[in-house]
Amino acid sequence: MRRADHHPSRRMFLNAAGAVAAAGCASGSVRPDRHAPAPKATPTPVPATGRHQAGIVLPRPAQPNLLAVVADLGASVAPGPLLAELGRAVLSLTAGTDTRLLGLPPGDLTVTVGVGPRLVRTAGASLPGTADLPRFSRERIAPQARGGDLLIQICAGDALLPPVVAAALLDQAGDRVRERWRQSARRGTNVSVGNGLTAPRNPLGFIDGIVGPHTTAEQQRDLWLAGPPAVAGGTLAVLRRMELDLPRFAALSVAEQEAVLGRRRASGVPLSGGTAASGPELGAKTPDGRYLVPADAHVRRAHSTVVGVGHMLRRSYSTDEPAPGLLFISFQNDLRTFTATLTHMDASDALLPFTTTTAGATFLILPGFNRQHPLGSQLFGRS
Description:
Helix content: 25-40%
Structural class: alpha+beta
Mean pLDDT: 91
Shape: globular
Strand order of the largest sheet: 1-5-2-4-3-11-8-10-9
Low-confidence stretches: 1-8, 19-30
Radius of gyration: 21 Å
Number of helices: 11
Order of helices and strands: EHEHEHEHEEEHEHHHHEEHEH
């Protein structure tokens, strides 16, 4: 396995082991605090098998720590056998039986695997997932950070797990893959938004991900691919890493920030009123005829009804490196749901001037799998 222009598999695995060892040394170098809070309850394991891959709608709420790894396959590498191997490794890692976990309990670990448009096209030119992500404004994306053949999304409650699991999976892939880029990120504290739902705050301080396909019926309509059989139960993912101009946004008054987003910063309630979970009333106006939700507010420009598309299941994660910002991930069963929304935002969205996109890709998230039906076997055949 090669990462960029060198061979990091062994180094990455040793670095991950060193991180765990260092954490253990640090914890052993101080006296226990008799007043320390009781340890948190053990996270509930998330089944790795099923009709859909874990890490999309399960668990709920999503784990706070994420590592996304984007890689390419060698030109002569058959995707079917590689994906089947990775699937078997995912099963052993999430079950806690893989020695490459270095003694860490898997807890609520999930691994979600997707394949890029080039690989999907080899399986069928008319399949969902064959289209590349188009270019948009406010992008500064190096060639290495655009597109890719393979996505490995690793989520966990334990921040030590994602790099260890990534090292194990890339070690499993060996020289068959070449890493393009990776991004570690974390979700903010979850806030109740009503209707039994929670959503985290993003780096701008606003509650993010309130609207989405949350019910089973909504997910069948907007999230999961229904066919053809090779992709049924999968979905389409979009990843966008963005730098945020936090100092300039923070210099705005709270009222100005709320006008940019279209929601109250503290509560997430739309500027048109109601509750956080209720949609904005885009036609509501002040007595003097001004829209309560400004014409260029983000919630208006990205509103599915205004754009004429379905809902995305959106996830936003905070990032520190390579610059302060966020990693945006959306899942939808039609790529146009994302592309039409961003095209509409490009025309006039008050939030975009505070963002610069530095990485982007789209992937077909493969249907769920088990030991009898290996990962990717519906699309690329059995290994």
